[in-house]
Specification:
Phosphatase 2c, domain 1, five-stranded antiparallel sheet, alpha+beta, about 240 residues, about 35% helix
């Protein structure tokens, strides 16, 4: 796929966890990248997130035109396949009941992007010096923010901030957010697990992206900042820039 896109991704266990339940995949030749954050206990969460990235790899390996409509179709197919594989895994491994993952999957056509989102991992876009959170968390505290019951600052410290309302593998027909938009020169997309956003606010993220370093350096810096603020969870960052 000949698009002027550069990618970089990295995952870090953080400072408090003994294993990494996050997973990511970057496939420049297939025009997509993804981040998944496992839930349901150490072994099960790690399995769920890798089931998702493997499903994305399997689905996007299918040949065909890279139209926006085709990307939307592959997006829905990936989430459906991953969801079914996790449910099938639980049937044969009942000790893993409750496992699942949040997921961000970003794919590109010639002039546009398509994003699939489920859970509280996030995707941001930096464009014209403006950082925008493209996704909305599927979480209890986000619902309370939307209802005006708590402020975003209160949500960051809320005891139920990790209660997720939607995730891959937790129901037969989970609802998927599909977002699409046009690409502009120098757009930078950030996909990340909540191990980054729980520790680092949007202003600090924007400042780091604005520094003008290459994607590898920026990724490393974001992870190190999250760790400097406590690194309480696994931290996964994937960056993609449209040249």
């Amino acid at each position: 796929m000949s698009l002027n896109l550069i990618y970089y991704g990295k995952s870090d266990v953080g400072l408090k966890r003994s294993n990494n339940e996050d997973a990511y995949i970057v496939e420049p030749d297939l025009g997509f990248c993804a981040v998944a954050d496992g839930m349901g206990g150490a072994a099960a969460g790690e399995i769920a997130s890798h089931i998702f990235t493997k499903a994305a790899q399997d689905v996007f390996a299918e040949t065909g035109p890279y139209s926006e409509e085709r990307r939307m179709d592959l997006m829905q197919k990936t989430f459906g396949l991953a969801n079914q594989r996790i449910l099938d895994h639980i049937k044969t491994n009942p000790q893993h009941a409750g496992m699942g993952c949040t997921a961000e999957l970003l794919a590109f056509s010639e002039t546009s992007f398509v994003l699939g989102h489920m859970g509280d991992s996030r995707t941001y876009r930096l464009r014209n010096d403006q950082l925008k959170q493209i996704t909305q968390d599927h979480s209890l505290v986000q619902d309370q923010i939307a209802q005006g019951l708590i402020t975003p600052d209160e949500a960051r410290r809320h005891p139920l901030r990790h209660v997720i309302l939607r995730a891959v593998g937790t129901s037969d027909t989970p609802s998927l957010d599909l977002i699409r938009g046009k690409l502009c020169a120098d757009d930078i997309f950030l996909l990340c697990s909540d191990g980054l956003t729980d520790m680092v606010d949007d202003e600090k993220i924007k400042h780091t992206l604005d520094a003008g370093n290459n994607l590898e350096q920026v990724t490393d810096e974001l992870i190190e900042i999250a760790k400097s603020f406590g690194g309480k969870d696994n931290i996964t960052v994937v960056l993609c820039k449209f040249i």
